[in-house]
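check these tokens.
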Amino acid sequence: MRLCSTESGGDRFPVRKPDPGHLLGLIAELGGEPSAAAMVGDNENDAMAAHAAFIPLLLMRYGYARVDPESLAADAMLDHFSEVPRALERLALIP
């Protein structure tokens, strides 16, 4: 199991979030599998990309969302980035 964090700007792939191709392209570029991935995001585009790619969404309660983050159907709502490992454990993405 490999944990990695990266960011990918809108010009890295031929499609942009919320198109799932952006997220799936990044996972493939990192040598990962969608079934072992999660999206950590903070806004509607992140949520739509994760849902369209069928990837769990860990949503930060702070950030750039223009709507109530609770309305974005996240698999986990987090207040601090330090909560990511525990959320991944709950989703059975890490032992």
